[in-house]
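dumping this here before i forget
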Amino acid sequence: MNFLKSKNTNLDDNKTGNNDTSPFLFTQKNYLILLFSLMLIGLGFLLMIGGGGDTATAFNPDIFSHRRIKVAPMIIIIGYIGMVFSIFYND
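structure:
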């Protein structure tokens, strides 16, 4: 049963060389990219607001504007891509 008590003499080989003991998961750059992406998503949703009619049966053609149909969804998608990028970004 002596093989169960073997010592690991290669402790230096097991270390990855990272001596960072930061309590945060990401760096400051990751959080800045994440915050900017979140602001882009919020801007995209703000661009989609409005366009309703005055009454329940009134039709307002502004609901099909270029800003709401094409620009705002593209900004939101760019924001989501930025969020994924901020998670995977490594210095």
